[in-house]
Design brief:
- The chain has two domains: 273 residues, 3-Layer(aba) Sandwich (Aminopeptidase), CATH 3.40.630.10; 138 residues, Glucose Oxidase, domain 1.
- Helix 3 runs antiparallel to helix 4 and helix 7 crosses helix 13.
- The strands form three sheets. Strands 2, 3, 5, 6, 7, 9, 10, 11, 12, 13, 14, 15 and 16 form a 13-stranded mixed beta sheet that branches. Strands 1-17 form a two-stranded antiparallel sheet. Strands 4-8 form a two-stranded parallel ribbon.
- By secondary structure, the protein is α/β, with parallel strands linked by helices.
- It binds zinc ion.
- Zinc ion binds next to helix 7.
Length: 493
């Protein structure tokens, strides 16, 4: 940041000391915008995020942490300095939750993860195996009362299982995975449930649980110790929203990514890659003019349940939402064992068709990536990231994704290289999601693809249907046009 200020100082001096020449900034073009995006610039942003995560010993940028607040400040300050955008911080409150769980049974300690919003407490009591999936009150035997319920993952959400166990009088609940491996944490959801009160909860891997269950089935009684250390409190955080001062303000081309990580790690791929990719595009875009306003949303508390984007959408007046022509989402675009996935907006692969225009966005990404020789595949358009709230209000959406906990198929390994049978990101939601585990090639290619879409739609949104309530396009903003579109002096020494 210091370097930036010095540059500005020199620039101003140079302009006043010598006759300036002027350059009229041109209308943005995809190839020009892409040319100015570099791996080294992306890596500089990633280094910042890693530094922010490391200001606390936990090495995290979870919403509400110091590492996250520094991330938000960095984005805000960087965009304000350009003068090109109207930048606002959008504060909102949410219920923060973090915790640690230890489980031991019959003298053995087990790996366990915390479920967000589970209350703290220590329980030492017999384990009672629950039949089915614990999604129905009738699944819980009367013997569970006063004891610890042992329940399989699956069929219904974690929160329902925990509430039903609470209603059955259990003092604690352990949810084990329904496939090999650990559950990897999860959320119960912040809201109280009518079915029952939450009780201390922790997770177990399927392997560990099955060995315990086989002993229980032999009639052996097992006393377990479940210790949940939890912090649950109301906090506030900020979205950062930046809109170009120029361009048609009734035809907004919107892109977004989330600024927070999970508690477990620094989140440099998830979603440092998407948020810093669009930040760098936002910086390079300032060299150009646009026909349509370009907006960037840097969402907070995505990992608590898309809370930032949800807050934005639910609090924006309908006439403001009608001005958004489309939304592009970038969440995890540098996975180490990457795939080149595009959200299936036309529903051709997963049968979940997005609002009309989502197909246009999908095809734009397909065509661009094909043109640079990259094979792509569709990915489920299931609302798992910040485009979910946009779909809810019928805004055409799309985006790119390089994969999370899913496993790369042998066919995909032929297309893209990497290892078949291994997760796209083995560090997903884990401490290893750090600066050493990014795929820079995938990151720059996806950032350029994002820039192509932004530049293309910033010039024209033809092909995207006009939305209900959207004004006639081309209506001039009542705001005076600033900077963008004016002559920019060029230093000549
Ligand atoms: Zn994410």
């Amino acid at each position: 940041m210091k370097t930036f200020a010095t540059t500005i100082g020199f620039f101003a001096l140079a302009v006043s000391a010598v006759p300036s020449t002027y350059r009229r900034p041109g209308l943005v073009q995809s190839n020009q915008l892409r040319r100015d995006l570099t791996r080294s610039a992306l890596l500089e942003h990633a280094k910042k995020l890693q530094e922010f995560a490391e200001v606390t010993p936990e090495i995290t940028r979870v919403a509400g942490s110091r590492g996250h607040n520094l991330t938000v400040d960095y984005i805000y300050d960087t965009l304000v300095k350009t003068g090109y955008y109207d930048v606002e911080l959008q504060p909102f409150t949410y219920v923060f939750s973090e915790g640690n769980v230890t489980i031991s049974a019959a003298g053995t300690s087990y790996e366990s993860q915390y479920f967000q919003y589970a209350p703290g407490g220590t329980v030492e009591a017999p384990l009672i195996s629950v039949s089915n999936f614990g999604c129905d009150a009738a699944d819980f035997p009367t013997t569970v009362s006063g004891n610890i319920a042992l329940v399989s993952r699956g069929t219904c959400e974690f929160g329902l299982k925990v509430a039903l166990a609470g209603a059955a009088g259990a003092k604690g609940i352990i949810i084990y995975n329904n496939v090999l491996g650990p559950v990897g944490g999860g959320t119960l959801g912040p809201d109280e449930r009518p079915e029952g009160k939450y009780i201390p909860a922790g997770s177990l891997s399927q392997e560990d649980a099955l060995s315990l269950i086989s002993k229980l089935n032999n009639g052996t009684s097992i006393t377990a110790n479940l210790d949940v250390d939890a912090l649950i409190e109301t906090r506030y955080t900020n979205n950062v929203i930046a809109t170009s001062k120029c361009g048609d303000q009734s035809n907004i081309v919107f892109s977004g990514g989330h600024t927070d990580s999970v508690q477990a790690g620094p989140g440099i791929n998830d979603d440092g890659s998407g948020s810093m990719g669009i930040l760098e595009i936002a910086l390079q875009l300032t060299k150009f003019t646009v026909n349509n306003a370009v907006r960037f949303g840097f969402w907070s508390a995505e990992e608590f349940g898309l809370l930032g984007s949800e807050h934005y959408i639910t609090t924006a007046p309908a006439e403001e939402l009608a001005k958004i022509s489309l939304y592009l989402n970038f969440d995890m675009i540098a996975s180490p064992n990457f795939g080149y996935f595009i959200y299936d907006g036309d529903g051709s692969a997963f049968n979940t068709t997005g609002p009309a225009g989502s197909d246009h966005i999908e095809h734009l990404f397909e065509d661009y990536l094909a043109s640079v020789g990259i094979k792509t595949a569709p990915t489920e358009f299931d609302g798992r990231s910040d485009y979910g709230p946009f779909l809810e209000v019928n805004i055409p959406s799309g985006g790119l994704f390089t994969g999370a906990e899913g496993l790369k198929t042998p066919e995909e390994a032929i297309w893209w290289g990497g290892e078949a049978g291994v997760a796209y990101d083995v560090n997903y939601h884990a401490p290893g999601d750090d600066i050493t585990n990014l795929n820079m090639g995938a990151w720059i290619q996806n950032t350029k693809a994002a820039a192509h879409a932004i530049a293309t739609y910033a010039v024209s949104t033809e092909g995207i249907p006009k939305r209900t309530g959207q004004q006639k396009r081309g209506v001039k903003s009542d705001k005076p046009k600033a900077r963008c579109g004016e002559d920019i002096p060029i230093a000549v020494m």
